[in-house]
């Protein structure tokens, strides 16, 4: 049977096209897992990034196609898929353009956001419109609860679906379908053991003192990790039944990167070479203002950048990205744990390992071919990333202590999925935390390059108007704080916000060394930025159209730009008609967090209505005022309904998705239902129509 299988494999079209579209590396990692598993099923995945349109052609593709695609922004396909999406959305394409195409699609998203998995849904819908057929049902994985809950079973079911697709395909081409089916079904018999131990999973047995190998994975006695004194599980400790379970763990990912240490002579790449989209501009920070009092729960800063000497342009409502480094002390700590403190300034040459078993192994695009070790850890790798299970699996092989090894195996196993979610994913654990928790784990540097994603530039909403402040760009942010917890013994600040706060400390707290001759605080600090235009979150093109803005906390940021722009237009065009403007703003405390600038917009007429609330202020009033913006909105139901339904107005929401934007959406649905005297379902349909018409717009984050 096995001989028949391999003979048939030579005759059958065992190839399938595997495309991925990724923003932060998730979709690529999943595609690589599919590619790796394909071999043990007698299949060959021809894997490409969806942007590499010169390497594949869907117009002539006869084999099944598997697509793994993520979602970015507020529902956009990832940057790598933009050209592909633009191409397939060409309205000139006929309905049967892809009638020959058989495909399966796995979409990645986050249900915290309104347009869940919209990148995948957009591609899926358009391929269907163009006549393509599913050979396997579409999977939609939710990062909010754990991608693996959908990804793992979707991949498990993919192989049978591909088998059936090949049977149908070859039947059409005149081959004997029973021979094909028999040959393909013989594959698991021939490779049963290999499948179980070196590809999909490895069955672990609880036996003492046997070292793992490529073919078997036997573990030391569980009592090395499980102590009867410990009743609660933790990052480093499990309890029954997990601690006594046989485990299914991922196959060991093949290593594919080779790192050669060189001398200390040379120059590191320019930061502009680290971005794949747009042009980077190095601009000075000219001003920094702390918007909140020292005793506020969150610290909000406003930074002003000088863009006068650049061609950087923006509209109010746009976003832009800041290229930021990892924390210096964390980089130093990582070098020390890795035993590479003395090599930080050495240049390293990164190459693909000759003879690697990883299919389609290529040099990672975000890794320079030559730079210093410290540069790679500082500017290229997201060392704060939550480690994927494949990384944990690789770390098992670098861990000396038997108890620590077992726990890492549990955390990457299917049986340990809930522990992984609780102690790794939800706890926001990073590599540094793991290396502290498992001190006998000593990974080589090549594993970091293979498993850590690209350090992403951080996106911020513009909080100014180029019309109001030519040559200046402002933005507002909270300094993100990660308090210490059992899985993270030290408190940390956000990668970018912590770095920016450090950079502008001299501007916020000047001393005699940072003052110029006139006693004004000056800064020589520069940061690198690039544009990320927002195609929808803009002011109405017609200034006479009314609009409502909802922006508590730093969600106010784009609306300051809106109001500055509107103020300047009013000054320059006194003969124009301007629609009314509403702003719903909320913060914790009036005396610590409130922005007095908003009153100026109200006083000069730029802002028609300003409604505020303070969630943490105590009150002596008999009837307590509303604490949150969604509650305040309900008090103005008739006015909101009038703006949206009778006057064709716009509704903008900016800020926290889970705790605010969803509440605002619910409030608007209730308002529409009440004012139109219709049921909630009908009101939800009306809101959906407003979204489709780009009149209900969100710029939110989780």
From TrEMBL:
Positions of the Flavodoxin-like domain: 16-159
Cofactor(s) needed for function: FAD; FMN
Matching InterPro entries: CysJ-like_FAD-binding, FAD-bd_FR_type, Flavdoxin-like, Flavodoxin/NO_synth, Flavoprot_Pyr_Nucl_cyt_Rdtase, Flavoprotein-like_sf, FNR_nucleotide-bd, NADPH_Cyt_P450_Rdtase_alpha
Pfam families: FAD_binding_1, Flavodoxin_1, NAD_binding_1
Catalytic reaction annotation: 2 cob(II)alamin + A + 2 H2O + 2 H(+) = 2 aquacob(III)alamin + AH2
TM spans (from-to): none
Keywords: Amino-acid biosynthesis, Cytoplasm, FAD, Flavoprotein, FMN, Methionine biosynthesis, NADP, Oxidoreductase, Phosphoprotein, S-adenosyl-L-methionine
A GO MF label: [methionine synthase] reductase (NADPH) activity
Enzyme class: oxidoreductase
Broad class of where this protein is predominantly found: cytoplasm
EC numbers for this chain: 1.16.1.8
GO biological process: cobalamin metabolic process; folic acid metabolic process; homocysteine metabolic process; methionine biosynthetic process
Gene3D superfamilies: 3.40.50.360, NADPH-cytochrome p450 Reductase, Chain A, domain 3, Nucleotide-binding domain of ferredoxin-NADP reductase (FNR) module, Translation factors
Residue span, FAD-binding FR-type domain: 278-540
Cellular component, GO annotation: cytosol
Localisation per UniProt entry: Cytoplasm
Subunit structure: Forms a multiprotein complex with MMACHC, MMADHC and MTR.
Name the UniProt record assigns to this protein: Methionine synthase reductase
């Amino acid at each position: 049977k096995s001989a028949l299988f391999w003979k048939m494999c030579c005759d059958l079209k065992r190839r399938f096209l595997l495309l991925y579209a990724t923003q932060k590396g998730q979709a690529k990692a999943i595609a690589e897992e599919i590619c790796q598993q394909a071999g043990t099923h007698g299949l060959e995945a021809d894997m490409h990034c969806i942007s590499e349109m010169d390497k594949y052609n869907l117009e002539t593709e006869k084999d099944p196609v598997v697509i793994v695609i993520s979602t970015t922004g507020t529902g956009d396909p990832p940057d790598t898929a933009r050209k592909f999406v633009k191409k397939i959305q060409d309205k000139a394409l006929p309905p049967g353009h892809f009638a020959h195409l058989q495909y399966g699609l796995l979409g990645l998203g986050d249900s915290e956001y309104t347009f869940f998995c919209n990148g995948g849904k957009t591609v899926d819908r358009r391929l269907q419109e163009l006549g393509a057929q599913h050979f396997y049902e579409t999977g939609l994985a939710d990062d909010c609860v754990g991608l693996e809950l959908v990804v793992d079973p979707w991949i498990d079911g993919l192989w049978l679906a591909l088998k059936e697709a090949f049977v149908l395909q070859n039947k059409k081409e005149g081959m004997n379908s029973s021979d094909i089916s028999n040959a393909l079904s013989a594959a698991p018999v021939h490779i049963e053991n290999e499948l179980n131990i070196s590809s999909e999973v490895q069955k672990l047995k609880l036996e003492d003192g046997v070292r793992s190998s490529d073919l078997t994975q036997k573990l030391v006695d569980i009592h090395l990790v499980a102590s009867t004194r410990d009743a609660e599980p933790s990052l480093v400790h499990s309890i029954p039944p997990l601690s006594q379970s046989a485990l299914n763990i991922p196959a060991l990912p093949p290593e594919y990167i080779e790192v050669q240490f060189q001398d200390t002579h040379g120059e590191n790449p320019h930061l502009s070479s680290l971005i794949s989209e747009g042009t980077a501009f190095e601009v000075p920070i000219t001003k920094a203002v702390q918007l909140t009092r020292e005793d506020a729960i969150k610290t909000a800063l406003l930074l002003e950048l000088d863009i006068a000497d650049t061609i950087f342009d923006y509209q109010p409502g746009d976003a832009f990205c800041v290229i930021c480094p990892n924390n210096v002390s964390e980089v130093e700590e990582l070098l020390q744990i890795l035993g590479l403190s003395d090599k930080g300034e050495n240049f390293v040459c990164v190459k693909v390992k000759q003879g690697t078993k990883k299919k389609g192994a290529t040099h990672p695009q975000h890794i320079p071919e030559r730079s210093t070790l410290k540069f790679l850890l500082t500017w290229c790798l997201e060392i704060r990333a939550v480690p994927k299970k494949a990384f944990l699996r690789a770390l098992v092989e670098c861990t000396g202590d038997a108890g620590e090894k077992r726990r890492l195996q549990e955390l990457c196993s299917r049986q340990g999925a809930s522990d992984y979610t609780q102690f790794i994913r939800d706890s926001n654990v990073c590599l540094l935390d793991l290396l502290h928790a498992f001190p006998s784990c000593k990974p080589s540097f090549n594993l970091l390059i293979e498993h850590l994603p690209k350090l992403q530039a951080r996106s911020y909403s513009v909080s100014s108007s180029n019309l109001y402040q030519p040559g200046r760009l402002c933005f507002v942010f909270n300094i993100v704080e990660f308090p210490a917890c059992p899985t993270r013994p030290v408190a940390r600040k956000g990668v970018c916000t912590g770095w920016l706060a450090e950079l502008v400390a001299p501007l916020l707290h000047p001393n005699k060394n940072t003052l110029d001759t006139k006693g004004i605080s000056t800064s020589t600090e520069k940061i690198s930025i690039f544009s990320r235009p927002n195609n929808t979150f803009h002011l109405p093109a017609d200034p006479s159209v009314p609009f409502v803005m909802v922006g508590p906390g730093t969600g106010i940021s784009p609306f300051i730009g809106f109001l500055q722009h509107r103020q300047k237009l009013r000054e320059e065009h006194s003969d124009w008609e301007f629609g009314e403007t509403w702003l719903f703003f909320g913060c914790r405390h009036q005396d610590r967090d409130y922005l007095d600038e908003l009153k100026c917009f109200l006083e000069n007429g730029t802002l028609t209505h300003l409604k505020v609330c303070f969630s943490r202020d105590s009150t002596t009033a008999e009837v307590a005022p509303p604490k949150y913006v969604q509650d305040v909105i309900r008090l103005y139901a008739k006015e909101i309904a009038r703006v949206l339904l009778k006057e064709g107005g716009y509704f903008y929401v900016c800020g926290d998705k889970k705790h605010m934007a969803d509440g605002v959406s619910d409030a608007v649905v209730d308002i529409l239902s009440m004012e139109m005297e219709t049921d909630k379902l009908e009101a939800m349909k009306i809101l959906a129509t407003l979204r489709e018409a780009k009149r209900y717009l969100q710029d939110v984050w989780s």
